[in-house]
Write a structure and sequence with these properties.
Elements (H helix, E strand, L loop, with lengths): L40 E15 L5 H5 L14 E5 L2 E5 L3 E3 L2 E14 L2 E13 L1 H4 L5 E13 L6 E15 L9 H35 L14
Antiparallel strand pairs: 1-8, 2-3, 3-5, 4-5, 5-6, 6-7, 7-8
Pfam family, one: DUF1997
InterPro entries: DUF1997
Protein backbone atom coordinates (compact mmCIF):
# COMPACT_ATOMS: atom_id res chain seq x y z
CA UNK A 1 0.00 0.00 0.00
CA UNK A 2 1.33 3.43 -0.92
CA UNK A 3 0.79 6.47 1.20
CA UNK A 4 0.12 9.62 -0.72
CA UNK A 5 -0.33 13.20 0.40
CA UNK A 6 -1.25 16.15 -1.68
CA UNK A 7 0.77 18.58 0.49
CA UNK A 8 4.47 18.48 1.49
CA UNK A 9 5.34 17.15 4.90
CA UNK A 10 6.69 19.86 7.21
CA UNK A 11 8.61 19.10 10.41
CA UNK A 12 6.95 20.05 13.65
CA UNK A 13 8.90 22.91 15.29
CA UNK A 14 10.63 21.95 18.51
CA UNK A 15 10.54 24.53 21.36
CA UNK A 16 13.99 25.90 22.14
CA UNK A 17 13.48 25.23 25.79
CA UNK A 18 13.31 21.55 25.14
CA UNK A 19 16.71 21.36 23.42
CA UNK A 20 19.33 19.89 25.71
CA UNK A 21 22.63 21.66 25.40
CA UNK A 22 25.86 20.14 26.67
CA UNK A 23 26.64 21.36 30.18
CA UNK A 24 29.80 23.46 30.40
CA UNK A 25 31.49 23.50 33.78
CA UNK A 26 33.16 26.83 34.45
CA UNK A 27 36.02 26.43 36.89
CA UNK A 28 37.40 29.57 38.46
CA UNK A 29 40.92 30.15 37.29
CA UNK A 30 43.62 32.20 39.00
CA UNK A 31 42.52 35.79 39.45
CA UNK A 32 44.97 38.57 40.11
CA UNK A 33 43.86 42.03 41.06
CA UNK A 34 46.53 44.61 40.32
CA UNK A 35 45.25 47.98 41.27
CA UNK A 36 47.49 50.60 39.78
CA UNK A 37 47.74 53.59 42.02
CA UNK A 38 47.02 56.87 40.30
CA UNK A 39 48.67 58.85 43.09
CA UNK A 40 51.49 61.15 41.93
CA UNK A 41 55.03 60.05 42.70
CA UNK A 42 58.23 61.90 43.47
CA UNK A 43 61.76 60.73 42.70
CA UNK A 44 64.87 61.76 44.62
CA UNK A 45 68.39 60.98 43.39
CA UNK A 46 71.68 61.94 45.00
CA UNK A 47 75.28 61.01 44.22
CA UNK A 48 78.47 61.94 46.02
CA UNK A 49 82.12 60.93 45.71
CA UNK A 50 84.27 61.45 48.79
CA UNK A 51 87.99 60.67 49.06
CA UNK A 52 90.65 60.82 51.74
CA UNK A 53 94.40 60.21 51.77
CA UNK A 54 95.74 57.32 53.82
CA UNK A 55 99.34 56.69 54.77
CA UNK A 56 100.21 53.03 54.52
CA UNK A 57 101.53 51.32 57.61
CA UNK A 58 103.24 47.96 58.05
CA UNK A 59 100.35 46.18 56.34
CA UNK A 60 99.16 47.67 53.03
CA UNK A 61 95.77 49.28 52.62
CA UNK A 62 94.92 47.07 49.65
CA UNK A 63 95.27 44.02 51.90
CA UNK A 64 92.87 45.57 54.39
CA UNK A 65 90.39 46.34 51.61
CA UNK A 66 90.49 42.71 50.43
CA UNK A 67 89.42 41.32 53.81
CA UNK A 68 86.32 39.09 53.60
CA UNK A 69 83.12 40.65 54.89
CA UNK A 70 83.13 38.22 57.81
CA UNK A 71 86.16 40.10 59.19
CA UNK A 72 84.69 43.59 58.81
CA UNK A 73 84.24 45.73 61.88
CA UNK A 74 80.73 47.15 62.27
CA UNK A 75 82.57 50.47 62.85
CA UNK A 76 79.77 51.94 64.99
CA UNK A 77 77.93 49.62 67.39
CA UNK A 78 75.35 52.33 68.14
CA UNK A 79 74.30 52.57 64.50
CA UNK A 80 75.23 49.26 62.84
CA UNK A 81 74.58 45.65 63.78
CA UNK A 82 75.67 42.51 61.99
CA UNK A 83 72.91 40.25 60.63
CA UNK A 84 75.20 37.60 59.13
CA UNK A 85 78.67 37.42 57.58
CA UNK A 86 78.01 39.94 54.81
CA UNK A 87 74.71 41.58 55.84
CA UNK A 88 74.30 44.52 58.21
CA UNK A 89 71.43 46.58 59.64
CA UNK A 90 72.08 50.33 59.77
CA UNK A 91 70.13 52.92 61.74
CA UNK A 92 70.49 56.19 59.87
CA UNK A 93 70.32 59.54 61.69
CA UNK A 94 66.96 61.28 61.85
CA UNK A 95 66.22 63.25 58.72
CA UNK A 96 64.00 66.34 58.64
CA UNK A 97 61.64 66.38 55.66
CA UNK A 98 59.31 69.39 55.65
CA UNK A 99 57.71 69.22 59.13
CA UNK A 100 58.39 65.50 59.69
CA UNK A 101 61.32 63.59 61.13
CA UNK A 102 62.21 60.32 59.43
CA UNK A 103 64.60 57.65 60.69
CA UNK A 104 65.47 55.14 57.92
CA UNK A 105 66.56 51.65 58.94
CA UNK A 106 68.60 49.99 56.19
CA UNK A 107 69.56 46.38 55.60
CA UNK A 108 72.63 46.24 53.36
CA UNK A 109 74.80 43.54 51.85
CA UNK A 110 78.55 43.84 51.30
CA UNK A 111 79.84 42.50 47.99
CA UNK A 112 83.59 42.05 47.64
CA UNK A 113 85.22 43.61 44.58
CA UNK A 114 88.82 43.53 43.25
CA UNK A 115 89.82 46.93 44.64
CA UNK A 116 87.45 47.10 47.61
CA UNK A 117 83.78 46.38 48.08
CA UNK A 118 80.29 47.56 47.22
CA UNK A 119 77.59 48.08 49.85
CA UNK A 120 74.13 47.55 48.34
CA UNK A 121 70.75 48.27 49.86
CA UNK A 122 68.51 45.22 50.36
CA UNK A 123 65.61 46.88 52.16
CA UNK A 124 64.63 50.12 53.87
CA UNK A 125 62.06 50.77 56.58
CA UNK A 126 60.98 54.20 57.74
CA UNK A 127 60.48 54.93 61.44
CA UNK A 128 58.79 58.03 62.79
CA UNK A 129 55.25 59.36 63.08
CA UNK A 130 52.23 57.24 61.97
CA UNK A 131 52.10 59.25 58.72
CA UNK A 132 55.78 58.51 58.07
CA UNK A 133 55.46 54.78 58.80
CA UNK A 134 52.37 54.59 56.59
CA UNK A 135 54.68 55.26 53.61
CA UNK A 136 56.58 51.99 54.07
CA UNK A 137 54.38 50.26 51.47
CA UNK A 138 54.43 53.26 49.13
CA UNK A 139 58.08 53.81 48.28
CA UNK A 140 61.07 52.06 46.79
CA UNK A 141 64.75 52.78 47.31
CA UNK A 142 68.09 51.68 45.94
CA UNK A 143 71.63 52.47 47.04
CA UNK A 144 75.14 51.46 46.02
CA UNK A 145 78.26 52.59 47.86
CA UNK A 146 81.48 51.54 46.13
CA UNK A 147 84.59 51.77 48.29
CA UNK A 148 87.98 51.46 46.63
CA UNK A 149 91.63 52.32 47.17
CA UNK A 150 94.16 53.58 44.64
CA UNK A 151 97.78 54.61 44.97
CA UNK A 152 98.95 58.00 43.74
CA UNK A 153 102.02 56.39 42.18
CA UNK A 154 103.39 52.87 42.02
CA UNK A 155 104.75 51.72 45.41
CA UNK A 156 103.54 54.98 46.94
CA UNK A 157 103.24 55.19 50.70
CA UNK A 158 100.14 57.34 50.29
CA UNK A 159 96.90 55.75 49.17
CA UNK A 160 93.56 57.26 48.29
CA UNK A 161 90.42 55.78 49.84
CA UNK A 162 87.27 56.65 47.86
CA UNK A 163 83.56 56.21 48.48
CA UNK A 164 81.26 56.63 45.48
CA UNK A 165 77.62 56.55 46.61
CA UNK A 166 74.33 56.83 44.73
CA UNK A 167 70.91 56.81 46.39
CA UNK A 168 67.57 56.80 44.56
CA UNK A 169 64.13 56.97 46.21
CA UNK A 170 60.71 56.91 44.57
CA UNK A 171 57.75 57.65 46.83
CA UNK A 172 54.01 58.03 46.44
CA UNK A 173 53.18 61.55 47.51
CA UNK A 174 50.90 61.53 50.60
CA UNK A 175 47.53 63.22 50.16
CA UNK A 176 48.45 66.00 52.59
CA UNK A 177 51.39 66.99 50.34
CA UNK A 178 49.62 66.94 46.98
CA UNK A 179 48.93 70.67 47.10
CA UNK A 180 52.70 71.16 46.78
CA UNK A 181 54.11 70.98 43.23
CA UNK A 182 55.93 67.71 42.52
CA UNK A 183 59.02 69.68 41.44
CA UNK A 184 59.24 71.30 44.88
CA UNK A 185 58.92 67.96 46.67
CA UNK A 186 61.57 66.38 44.44
CA UNK A 187 63.94 69.30 44.92
CA UNK A 188 63.52 69.19 48.70
CA UNK A 189 63.93 65.40 48.85
CA UNK A 190 67.07 65.50 46.72
CA UNK A 191 68.57 68.22 48.93
CA UNK A 192 67.87 66.09 52.02
CA UNK A 193 69.66 63.08 50.48
CA UNK A 194 72.58 65.23 49.37
CA UNK A 195 72.92 66.71 52.85
CA UNK A 196 72.84 63.23 54.35
CA UNK A 197 75.68 62.06 52.09
CA UNK A 198 77.63 65.26 52.72
CA UNK A 199 77.56 64.57 56.48
CA UNK A 200 77.88 60.80 56.58
CA UNK A 201 80.47 59.94 53.93
CA UNK A 202 83.41 61.88 55.49
CA UNK A 203 82.56 60.35 58.87
CA UNK A 204 82.36 56.88 57.32
CA UNK A 205 85.76 57.25 55.63
CA UNK A 206 87.28 58.58 58.86
CA UNK A 207 86.08 55.45 60.67
CA UNK A 208 87.49 53.24 57.91
CA UNK A 209 90.90 54.89 58.19
CA UNK A 210 90.88 54.50 61.96
CA UNK A 211 89.92 50.83 61.61
CA UNK A 212 92.66 50.27 59.02
CA UNK A 213 95.24 51.82 61.35
CA UNK A 214 94.15 49.52 64.19
CA UNK A 215 94.23 46.47 61.91
CA UNK A 216 97.60 47.39 60.37
CA UNK A 217 99.15 47.78 63.83
CA UNK A 218 98.17 44.22 64.74
CA UNK A 219 94.79 44.74 66.44
CA UNK A 220 92.55 41.96 65.08
CA UNK A 221 89.75 42.37 67.63
CA UNK A 222 87.58 44.17 65.01
CA UNK A 223 85.92 46.13 67.80
CA UNK A 224 83.55 48.95 66.77
CA UNK A 225 85.02 52.43 66.80
CA UNK A 226 82.04 54.80 66.66
CA UNK A 227 79.79 56.00 69.46
CA UNK A 228 76.69 56.85 67.43
CA UNK A 229 77.46 60.57 67.41
CA UNK A 230 78.11 62.74 64.39
Amino acid sequence: MTLHSSSPIRPTPVPLTSIKRPRVLLRPGPFRASAVSSAPKARFVANRIESTSVQQLRRPLVEYMSLPASQYSVLDAERIERVDENTFRCYVYRIKFFSFEVCPVLVVRVEEEPSGCCIRLLSCKLEGSPLVEAQNEKFSASMANRISCNSYTQNSEMQQLTSDTTIEVTIEIPFAFRVIPVEVIESTGTQVLEQLLRIMLPRFLKQLVKDYQAWASGDISRQPLGTGEL
